[in-house]
Amino acid sequence: MTPYAVLAAVLAALCASPALAAPSPATDGKALFAAKGCQACHGEAGAKPIAGSPVIAGQNAIYLARQMTEIADGTRTSAPVKVMKPIIEKTTPDERKALAEWLSTQKPADPQTGDKAKAEQGAELFDENGCIGCHGADGLKPLADYPFLAAQRKDYLMIQIKAIRDEIRSTRRTRMMTANVRKFSDAQVEQVAEFLSQTKRK
Ligand code: HEC
Ligand code: HEC
């Protein structure tokens, strides 16, 4: 074989190898999740977050992508988002889409254990305050592009409901529900969060 023929054979073998056929990192959500360090706070495959961080596994893909963009561009403001702003700022729209799509296919978190009596009161509040209209019965069947709430972390839910109530997390879409949560006391917020965090995702 001439040196040229050897080179051509190597090139042909490389092009046929799975390494090159694999999706590019920009469209591989799983690889991006590892490379960008998301796991440090959101846990393995987005389902085992540390205190204060949300479960993002099994969440609606369009909702996830929108949150990433709104955190990156500063539309979604509240104290806790500041920790992830510097990370998500360095992703492109295509990378965020790939991350969101991969995360949406991952297994949601298991329900948490908590105070049963508070959860029962929370279930009533969830029914009586019209949450079902947009998030579905028990937070299990949201309208298109809206978030699932069932089996989300209790502490994260409490931070968000209070931030939406107090208009700290205040975007065009969160303002649609401000009236529903406005009258909640902190104790009622906790009851709703107990209920949702203890509800199993189907
Ligand atoms: C340093 C910890 C940290 C890292 C690293 C991190 N996040 Fe977050 N993330 C958070 C916290 C905390 C929140 C909730 C902020 C709040 O309370 O508003 C959040 C919120 C989110 C949300 C919104 C979820 C919802 O239900 O609204 C998405 C989506 C998200 N992160 C995706 C990612 C992705 C993808 C990465 C990697 C590129 C990442 N995060 C890296 C801490 C982190
Ligand atoms: C009119 C529709 C509507 C109603 C009613 C509604 N929500 Fe929402 N809710 C939304 C939308 C839309 C979002 C996502 C906002 C965004 O995309 O930034 C949201 C977000 C949330 C979040 C944040 C989820 C996350 O992952 O960060 C929580 C918690 C929540 N709603 C709880 C409730 C509760 C509790 C009630 C009833 C008291 C309620 N919502 C009523 C539309 C609604």
Characterization of this structure:
One of its GO terms (molecular function) is electron transfer activity. It comes from Paramagnetospirillum magneticum (strain ATCC 700264 / AMB-1). The structure is a single chain. The chain has 202 residues and is mostly helical. It has two domains: 25-104, Cytochrome Bc1 Complex, Chain D, domain 2, CATH 1.10.760.10; 116-198, Cytochrome Bc1 Complex, Chain D, domain 2, CATH 1.10.760. The protein has helices spanning 3-16, 18-21, 29-35, 39-42, 61-72, 85-88, 93-104, 116-128, 132-135, 154-165, 178-181, 186-198. α5 (61-72) runs antiparallel to α7 (93-104). The protein is globular. It starts with a helix and ends with a helix. The structure holds heme C (2 copies). One heme C binds next to α5, α9, α10 and α11.
Topology:
Blueprint: H1 3-16, H2 18-21, H3 29-35, H4 39-42, H5 61-72, H6 85-88, H7 93-104, H8 116-128, H9 132-135, H10 154-165, H11 178-181, H12 186-198
Helix pairs in contact: 3-7, 5-7, 8-12, 10-12
This protein binds heme C (2 copies).
One heme C is lined by residues 36-38, 40-42, 52-54, 56, 64, 67-68, 78, 80-81, 83-84, 87-88, 91, 99, 147, 159.
Main sheet properties = none
Which molecules other than protein and nucleic acid are bound? heme C
CATH class wording of the largest domain: Mainly Alpha
**Helix share bin:** 40-55%
Number of alpha- plus pi-helical segments:
12
Which CATH architecture of the largest domain is right? Answer: Orthogonal Bundle
**Molecular shape:** globular
Q: Could you name the CATH topology of the largest domain? A: Cytochrome Bc1 Complex, Chain D, domain 2
How many structural domains? 2
The CATH superfamily of the largest domain bears the name Cytochrome c-like domain
The helix/strand series, from N terminus to C terminus, equals: HHHHHHHHHHHH
Give start-end ranges of low-pLDDT stretches.
6-21
Structural class: mainly alpha
Measured between the Cα atoms of the first and last residue, the distance is 61 Å
Number of strands: 0
Q: Report the β-strand fraction as a percent range.
A: under 5%
Average of per-residue pLDDT values: 90
- Rg over C-alpha atoms, rounded to the nearest angstrom: 21 Å
